[in-house]
Structures are given as C-alpha cells and as structure tokens.
Amino acid sequence: MPNMFAVASDEFRRFPKVELHRHLEGSLRLQTMLEVARKHGLTLPASVVRLSRLVQVQDEDNLTFGNFLAKFNTLRMFYRSPDVIDRITREAIEDAANDNIRYMELRFTPVALSRAERFPMHDVMDWVCESARNGAKKYGVTVRLIASVNRHEAIELAEQVVWLAIDRRDKGIVAIDLAGDEAQYPAKPFLALFNEGRQAGLKVTMHAGEWGGPGNIREAIESFSADRIGHGVHVLDDPFTTALAREHNTPFEVCLTSNYQTGAVNTLTSHPAPKMIAAGLNVTLNTDDPSISQITLTNEYRVAVEELKIPREVLKERVQAAAQAAFLPDGEKKKLVDGIKKELSK
Predict the structure, then answer these.
(1) For the domain bounded by 10-24+92-344, which CATH number is listed?
(2) Residue ranges in the chain modelled with pLDDT below 70
(3) What is the pLDDT of residues 291-310, one digit of tens each?
(4) Do residues 76 and 273 touch, judged by C-beta distance below 8 A?
(5) FRET partner for 202 with CA separation of 20 to 30 A, picked from 37, 40, 113, 143?
(6) Within 13 Å of residue 31, how many CA atoms lie on the same side as its CB?
(7) How does DSSP classify residue 303?
C-alpha cells in the first residue's frame, strides 16, 4: 500500500497541483492526534503505531466501505476545542503547500466538527473559515471551502449547514457537498435544499457512483444539476450515463487510492480512470482523505502514470482540467489555469 511518508518521485512532486476533493476530517496528522489526546485526556493508544491502526488504512485491513468509514468514528473524538480545529485546518493547508498544491478546495463537515463538544455550528464554520484564510496566506496556497452534509443524517442538520454556508460566501465557502452512504440513503430528500443553495450562489458537488450505481450519477447531473461529481467510478457501468456526463463535460473528482481502499474498485491497477479518460470524461485526480489513506497528491499522480499507465501528457491535461473545474470566478480561474499551464510546459 502506498505510504504518504515514502520518498516519492521528484518528477511528480515538482508538478504544480490542484486538489478539488480533500476532506478536512481525513487530513489529521498522527502526531497532532496524539498531542490532542494527551491534552484533553482522551483514552487512546499512546503510540503512533497503535493509533495508526485506528485512524489509517493498514495492509491487513479488509478494504471495504464500512472499514474505511469506521476510521472517522475515532477521528470525531479529536475536535475538542477551537484551537484544535484551527490547528488541523492550518496543518492541512501546510501539508498541501509542501506537496506543491497551488489551489485546494478543502471540504469539511460542520456536524462532525461540532458533535464532540456540542459546539454551535455557526462557530465551527467561522473557525474553519478564519483558519483557512490565515493558513492560505501563511503557506501561499489558494484555498476555498466546501461545506459537506451527509445523506444519513437529518435533513434539519443539512438545512442549518446550507443556510450558514450561504451566509459565509464572503468568507471562502464556495460550494456545498452531499456525502455519506449513497448505497442505503437517497439523495432526493436534499434536492430542494441544494437548489436553494445553488440559487443563493453556491456551487454543488455530490458523492455519487462510488458505492452506488450509475443511477446516482444520472440523478446528480439531471436532478441536482451538480457542477461536479465526487468519485463517480461506476459511470462506465451504463452507456447512457457515460454519454450524459460526457455531454455535460461534468468534472469527476476521482480518488485512486481511496477508491481501492473503500472497495469501490477491486484492485488499484484495475481502476477505471484510464477508461474514463478514454471515454472522453472529464477526470481530475484527488486524495479524498490523505491521512487515512497515508498518501499525498504526489503519490496519486505517480500511481496514475506508473501503475495505471496514464501518459504524462494526459496527466498534465488532467491537472489543467482540475484548474478549469475550480469553483472560482472566471477571472481568478483564468489566472489559475494559465499559471498551471505555464508551469507544466517548463
């Protein structure tokens, strides 16, 4: 299994990168978790190795959706203070900067961050917004935020998040995301709410076609008018859905290692990303949860080229496609795309 601390190829580390799908809650450093546990008296293993088994995918783990999501049960214990939320946000941005990421959309789940200490969600969202703004300035990464809600949680919670996100568009929140267990929980109850968010100026991205079938992708495009699709690895299972996504040029936020670790694909080398690209679909590469998966975006670029045999020139095109799919105003987006293109041409 790829390790985020392994020495990666300098070639891929030098690539300017764009990250569209990274969860804050899946980006915590192990050392930070140990320090938070000690400070707040959490009953957890005292060693990095033992803690790692609870919060990161291991070689011996069953690679299933359930096992991957179980890591978040432990992670939710750590959000104990405003200082902790500030720290993990800033560190996620620092890690991105160290990986040569130029632009990142960091999605976060206010319900998850607020639950351990029953923080008001408006406070949690303000803390993340402020920390992201400060971290972006300090580390030289352009950062925008996506507020995420889960299908399996109450619609009333989602309403709070979306309304609060609308009020914080001037603080860096650019979109809303529907995540969670798509195999067992429908998206339809959230349709009116997401339409409301869109009408108020937020972009929409949805996890679809990861553990569910291509019908969820069709629904995201046709009913929700989703601007992007999270994962979408089952899009090729249905020719109509493939054609629909190609016609709309819908960007797919593909996460290679994560899709393997969650059981969405059977093996890393059988990932459908190369076939998705060959079918004319708008594929971008992302990490999902870099700490849980023990990876970096550099690693994912290497996997794309060396394991999946995606040509380097095609990878460069996909990086530019990610920049083009950024939730930015046209002027800022053009500046990002032009900058990425210039760097990649060197």
Answers:
(1) 3.20.20.140
(2) 1-9, 46
(3) 999 999 999 999 999 999 99
(4) no
(5) 113
(6) 2
(7) I
> pTM score, two decimals?
0.94
**115 token code pair:** 């639950």
Q: Give catalytic status of residue 182 as yes or no.
A: no
CA quadruple 277, 201, 209, 211: dihedral positive or negative? positive
Q: Where do the structural domains in the chain lie, given as residue ranges?
A: 10-24+92-344
The predicted-structure confidence for 72-82, as pLDDT tens digits, reads as follows 888 888 999 99
Give which of 287, 236, 223 is closest to 261, Cα–Cα: 287
Token look-up 């429908």 returns 186
Tokens of 287: 């990490």
Which of 338, 293, 337, 305 minimizes the C-alpha distance to 11? 305
Identified catalytic residue from 210, 219, 253, 300: 210
Say if residues 65 and 211 touch (Cβ distance below 8 Å): yes
Q: Within 13 Å of residue 282, how many CA atoms lie on the same side as its CB?
A: 21
Cβ–Cβ < 8 Å for 81, 275: no
Tell me if 55 sits within 8 A of 33, measured CB to CB: yes
Q: How far apart are CA 172 and CA 1, in angstroms?
A: 35
The whole-angstrom separation of Cα 260 and Cα 303 is: 12
Kindly tell me the burial class for residue 94, based on how many C-beta atoms sit within 10 Å of its own C-beta (0-12, 13-18, 19 or more).
Answer: middle
Looking at the DSSP assignment, which residues form a beta bridge with residue 52? none
d(C-alpha 287, C-alpha 101), whole Å: 12
How many other CB atoms sit within 10 Å of the CB of residue 200?
14
